[in-house]
Design brief:
- The chain contains 18 helices and twelve strands.
- Helix 5 packs antiparallel against helix 8, helix 5 (154-201) runs parallel beside helix 9 (279-321) and helix 8 runs antiparallel to helix 9 (279-321).
- Helices cover 62% and strands 10% of the residues.
- It has helices at 12-43, 50-99, 102-108, 110-152, 154-201, 203-208, 212-237, 239-267, 279-321, 382-387, 412-418, 433-437, 446-455, 459-464, 482-494, 512-525, 561-567, 569-577, and strands at residues 341-348, 359-366, 371-376, 397-402, 405-406, 419-422, 431-432, 472-473, 500-504, 530-534, 546-551, 554-559.
- Residues 268-274 have low confidence and may be disordered.
Length: 586
C-alpha cells in the first residue's frame, strides 16, 4: 500500500490534513468525556447551581461543535485524497498499458487488466479512505483513552493492558485464514469479467443461436463461485466484531463491578484494595471503554478493507512493475528510407521459446513498392508473419529489416506510423465516420477523407446515410455491415500515406468486384507503397507481383500466379476448390 501512496501527487495536502483533523477531533471527544465526568461529580454536590450546569452545558456544546467541524472537514479531505489517488492510479495504469506490447497484454489477459483498473482500484480507494480517517483516529483514541484511564485509576486501567494483546492475536489468526480466499476471489473476478465481455461482444451470435439460457447458466456458475468464496471469507471475518465486543464488554463488566464496590466503599469512608472512585470517574472509565471498543471496531473494519485491498494492491503493482518487451532504443533512427522488407532466418514464438516456434526459418526479400500476396491455410502463420514488421511482436530468432535497417533500431512511433495495417478484426470506435477516419491522419481535410473513401469504395454508402460523413458509428461499428466496416478501415489506412500497407484478410466481406476496384486503386494512389495482401481468395492476390504460399509456419513457395499454378500443389488445390468444383483443365 505504501508504494502506491506516491500517486497521491497533488492530493498530498488533503492526505496530510486528514489525520491532523482526525486527531484534533479525537482530542475533542476526550474533552467531552472529561467534561461530562466533572458535570456528574458536580451534580452530586448539593450546592450546585443552575449557572454551573449552564456553564458545563456551554462547554459541551462548544467542544461538540468543534468536533463536528473537524469531523466534517476530515471526511471531505479524506474523500478528496482517496478519489484523487484512484484517478491517478487509473491514469497511470492506462498509460502503462498503452506502452505494453502484445506479449505483455497476452501475459495479463484483457479481462484481468479491466478488473485491475476497476474493481482493484476501487478497493484501494476505499482502503485509503478508511486508513486516512480511521487508522489515524483509532490508535490515537485508544492511546488517549488508556492514558486517561490510568490517570483516572491506574489499578482498574490494567484490565485494558491485558485485553488488547489478546484481541491482536485473534485478528492475526483471522488474517492468515482469509488472505488466500481473497486471492482466489480476484482470480474469479477476472473470469467473470471475461464472460461478461464475451457475451456482450457476441450478443448477436448468442441470440442468433438462442443460447441465452446457456450464457445465463455460465454466468451464474461463476457468480456462485464468487459467492461461496466471499461467504467463506466474510464468515471468518465476522468473528472480528464478535471478538471485539466480547473482549471489551467483559472488560467493561469487570470495571463496573470493581468500580461500583469502590464507590460504595468510598461513600462509607473506606478504600477497597487501594481503589477509591467517584461516580464521575466511573462514568469516565465507561466512556473510555466505549471509546476503546469503537476504536477497536473501526480497526477491525480497516483490517477487513486491508485484507481485501492487499491482493488488489499486489495486482496493481504487477502492472507498474511490468516492463514492456518492446521499447524504442536509445538514439533511435527516425527516418525510414522506403518500404523494402527483409526477413533473415526469422523464427517466432508467442511464448518466446525458440524450441516452440510458430514461424521458422523465414527468408524473404520484398522490394519497395512491390505488391505481395500471402495465402495459406488457417494457422499457417500468415498473420504472425506480418505482425513482426511494425514490431507488434519481436522476432524470437533472426532479424527483420525495413528500409535497409533492423526494425529494432527505429523509433517505435515512427516505424508504426510508416506501416498501415488493416487487421482481420476490423475495429471502429464510437464516434462519427470523420472521427474514425482521422485516426489515420488527424489533420486530414474533408477533401482528403472523401478521396480515400472513393478509393476504398466506401464513398457510395457513406453519402447514402442521412448525415453522410457525420454519421455516428456505434462502439465496434455495430451499426454498419462487415463489408462497410472493412472499407472504412482501408480508407483510414490509406489516409496515413504509409510506406508499407498490410491488408490481413481485410476484404473478405466485400464482393469480388469491389475487391478488384480497391486493389486497382492501390496501384494508382500509392504506387510506391509496399503492399502485402493476406487473403483466402486467390482472386484477391492473383494480380500481385509475387505470391507467398504459407504452410505450417514456413514458406512453402514464392512465385507469380501462373508459376504457382504450375509448380505448387497447395496453391493448385486452393485454386481448384474455388473454381466451383472445377479444375484448371476444364
Amino acid at each position: 500500500m505504501v508504494q502506491l501512496l506516491k500517486y497521491l501527487k497533488s492530493y498530498k495536502k488533503d492526505a496530510i490534513l486528514t489525520p491532523v483533523l482526525v486527531v484534533l477531533e479525537t482530542i475533542g471527544e476526550l474533552c467531552l468525556t472529561i467534561i461530562i465526568g466533572r458535570l456528574i461529580d458536580q451534580l452530586s454536590n448539593s450546592d450546585t447551581t443552575m449557572a454551573t450546569i449552564w456553564g458545563y452545558g456551554l462547554q459541551l456544546l462548544l467542544v461538540a461543535l468543534i468536533c463536528l467541524i473537524f469531523g466534517t472537514v476530515s471526511g471531505l479531505t479524506s474523500t478528496k485524497a482517496a478519489a484523487g489517488l484512484s484517478k491517478n492510479l487509473r491514469n497511470e495504469m492506462f498509460s502503462r498499458i498503452q506502452d505494453f506490447s502484445f506479449t505483455n497484454i497476452d501475459k495479463f489477459s484483457t479481462n484481468s487488466l479491466v478488473t485491475r483498473m476497476t474493481t482493484d482500484v476501487m478497493n484501494v480507494q476505499n482502503a485509503i479512505m478508511m486508513i486516512l480517517r480511521v487508522a489515524a483516529k483509532a490508535p490515537i483514541a485508544i492511546l488517549c483513552a488508556l492514558v486517561m484511564a490510568f490517570f483516572t485509576n491506574w489499578q482498574i486501567g490494567l484490565a485494558y493492558i491485558v485485553l488488547i494483546p489478546i484481541l491482536f492475536v485473534c485478528l492475526t489468526a483471522i488474517a492468515r485464514v482469509t488472505h488466500p480466499v481473497f486471492h482466489r476471489v480476484f482470480k474469479t473476478y477476472d473470469r467473470l469479467n471475461g464472460v461478461v465481455r464475451e457475451n456482450l461482444h457476441g450478443i448477436r451470435v448468442v441470440k442468433g443461436f438462442v443460447r441465452e439460457e446457456y450464457e445465463v447458466q455460465k454466468f451464474g456458475k461463476i457468480s456462485e463461485d464468487i459467492r461461496k468464496d466471499f461467504t467463506k471469507a466474510e464468515t471468518t471475518i465476522a468473528f472480528n466484531p464478535f471478538l471485539m465486543q466480547m473482549g471489551i464488554y467483559s472488560c467493561l463488566t469487570l470495571i463496573a463491578w470493581f468500580s461500583a464496590k469502590a464507590i460504595v466503599a468510598s461513600g462509607n469512608g473506606t478504600i477497597v484494595a487501594g481503589v477509591s472512585m467517584t461516580t464521575g470517574q466511573l462514568q469516565n472509565l465507561i466512556s473510555y471503554s466505549m471509546m476503546i471498543l469503537m476504536s477497536l471496531m473501526m480497526l477491525s473494519m480497516i483490517y477487513v478493507m486491508l485484507m481485501i485491498s492487499r491482493e488488489s494492491v499486489s495486482r496493481i503493482q504487477e502492472i507498474f512493475d511490468e516492463k514492456s518487451s518492446i521499447v524504442t532504443p536509445d538514439n533511435a533512427e527516425k527516418s525510414i528510407r522506403d518500404g523494402e522488407i527483409v526477413f533473415d532466418h526469422v523464427g517466432f514464438s508467442y511464448v518466446g521459446d525458440p524450441s516452440n516456434l510458430c514461424l521458422s526459418d523465414i527468408n524473404l526479400h520484398i522490394r519497395s513498392g512491390e505488391t505481395i500476396g500471402i495465402i495459406g491455410g488457417t494457422g499457417s502463420g500468415k498473420s504472425s508473419l506480418v505482425q513482426l514488421i511494425p514490431r507488434l511482436y519481436d522476432a524470437t530468432v533472426g532479424t527483420i529489416s525495413v528500409g535497409g535497417r533492423d526494425v529494432r533500431e527505429y523509433d517505435l512511433e515512427q516505424l508504426r506510423d510508416a506501416v498501415a495495417m488493416v487487421l482481420q478484426k476490423n475495429v471502429l470506435f464510437a464516434g462519427t465516420i470523420k472521427e474514425n477516419l482521422r485516426w489515420g491522419n488527424k489533420d486530414a481535410t474533408d477533401e482528403e477523407l472523401e478521396e480515400v473513401c472513393r478509393l476504398a469504395q466506401a464513398d457510395s454508402f457513406i453519402t447514402a446515410f442521412p448525415d453522410g460523413y457525420d454519421t455516428y458509428i456505434e462502439q465496434g461499428g455495430a451499426n454498419v455491415s462487415g463489408g462497410q466496416k472493412q472499407r472504412l478501415c482501408i480508407a483510414r489506412a490509406l489516409l496515413k500515406h504509409p510506406k508499407i500497407l498490410i491488408l490481413d484478410d481485410s476484404t473478405s466481406a466485400v464482393d469480388t468486384k469491389t475487391d478488384a476496384l480497391i486493389r486497382k486503386a492501390f496501384s494508382s494512389y500509392i504506387p510506391e507503397t509496399t503492399k502485402i495482401i493476406i487473403a483466402q481468395r486467390i482472386s484477391s492476390v492473383e494480380d500481385a507481383d509475387r505470391i507467398i504460399v504459407m504452410d505450417g509456419g514456413k514458406i512453402d513457395a514464392i512465385g507469380t500466379h501462373e508459376e504457382l499454378l504450375k509448380t505448387n500443389k497447395i496453391y493448385q488445390e486452393v485454386y481448384d476448390s474455388q473454381q466451383k468444383g472445377g479444375s484448371r483443365d476444364e
